[in-house]
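Training component of the fellowship. As part of building independent skills, the fellow (R.M.) carried out the full modelling exercise for a liganded target. The chosen ligand was N-acetyl-L-glutamyl 5-phosphate. The inputs are recorded below so that the supervisory panel can assess the work.
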Amino acid sequence: MTTYRAAVAGATGYAGGELLRLLLGHPQIEIGAVTAAKSAGSRLGEHHPHLVPLADRRVEPTDAEHLAGHDIVFLALPHGASGEIAEQLGDEVLVVDCAADHRLVDGNKWQQYYGSTYHGSWPYGLPELPGQREKLTGTKRIAVPGCNPTASTLALLPAVAAGLITVDDIVVVLATGPSGAGKKLAVTYLAAEIMGSATPYQVGGIHRHTPEMEQNLIACGAADPKVSFTPMLVPMARGILATCTAKLADPTITADDVYAVYQRAYADEQFVHLLPQGSWPQTQATVGANTAHVQATVDPHTGRLVAIAAIDNLAKGTAGGAIQCTNIALGLDEATGLTTIGVAP
Ligand SMILES: NC(=O)C1=CN([C@@H]2O[C@H](COP(=O)(O)OP(=O)(O)OC[C@H]3O[C@@H](n4cnc5c(N)ncnc54)[C@H](OP(=O)(O)O)[C@@H]3O)[C@@H](O)[C@H]2O)C=CC1
Ligand SMILES: CC(=O)N[C@@H](CCC(=O)OP(=O)(O)O)C(=O)O
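Fellow's submitted model of the complex:
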């Protein structure tokens, strides 16, 4: 059995920590260098007390020298830092970027929403998109999706692909836990402000995940989709619940029609769990698992589809999705080292 050696850059952060947690259970990937920025020189146990087998690992600086000599490099760095270091890594190493730097195909959209150096696009790490597994197989570069686009795309994919909805008025309202903002940003949200409150942010169509969501819907077959996206912070450590609505293409489409389309679309997707008809996704059931829980129906009063997805932003939304795609790239069983079993309560 081949064993691959992987470095994790940004190992002290939330995404890096979740990558390491999952990699510890991966039978064919061993953990090499763990790197960060200002915390270089510290021990990993100071940052991730839950990762007991790695407690004494020294955190190295993030540079090409420390990332050399690996088969895989996972980048869990802020945007920009990720794009810069990626340019210094050889063509032979598999680079899996959890940041946004290589997600958008359209450089103008990158400028509009990020306004920083555009690093081009890599194969996009959402295997459930039509034709995407072929693009990921054997690749040496993977752009891991944003957690919000993963949840909303998986909620809408079957409806768009089957032409159940019109795509010029898609509304996504999404609740997310603060770990989605990363450790560095999370410290700016005081517990006293988070607990007991729901707080919208990036309101008015300005969130940088909007073009990524639209890009994904184009990949599902939509022509010129328009997404109105409103996220809000809610008091849970992990989790995203994306509620997506859109006008039905034909008002006679029933809830049973919709459910049958979703059943067909996700019949072979082991990491997308379509709930029994009438049950609705809850974030808790996805915690620690590489799953998206999905449900959809119609609202006959307004003639709209209502589709909801729940994910763990750090699992299927980042680290789990990254490992799923890594498995595909390496030709391993897609589920190696991953679970569909969540943690409850
Ligand atoms: N959190 C989430 O749910 C998701 C995160 N992502 C993406 O994953 C990436 C990491 O996010 P997350 O873990 O949440 O962020 P964190 O803030 O929790 O962690 C950031 C990590 O990057 C390191 N770092 C910061 N600046 C630099 C730099 N200039 N050079 C090298 N290393 C640096 C930090 O090290 P140190 O501690 O030493 O400063 C830390 O290890 C981001 O691009 C994020 O957008 C994507 C999807 C979801
Ligand atoms: C709570 C929170 O702030 N969440 C982040 C999601 C981060 C993410 O998906 O990562 P990328 O930054 O790599 O796109 C947000 O909405 O911007």
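The panel noted the following from the submitted structure. The domain at 148-313 is CATH 3.30.360.10 (Dihydrodipicolinate Reductase; domain 2). The two ends are 37 Å apart (CA to CA).
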